[in-house]
Amino acid sequence: MAVIKLNGSEAAIASASNVGFAKLVRVLNNKGSVQVITHKNAGGTTLGTVTLAAGEIAYIQKAPSDTLTGAATSLAVNVNFAN
């Protein structure tokens, strides 16, 4: 099991967020259905998307100025792996 260091508080990413200029983000789909998370660069170009199942957690690496967007029930927090 990975040990993570929290660098902030979890918040919804219903609108584009750089998640505290994070380089690594823990994202939770806190909903009973799938959600799509969109990763964009600072210029607004989509770099990729990922679909998270209900209750699924993903760790997304990004540039500090890149943004993530999901839904009101997509929760994200800036993290680092501690091990």
Automatic annotation (TrEMBL):
Protein name: Uncharacterized protein
Annotated source species: marine metagenome
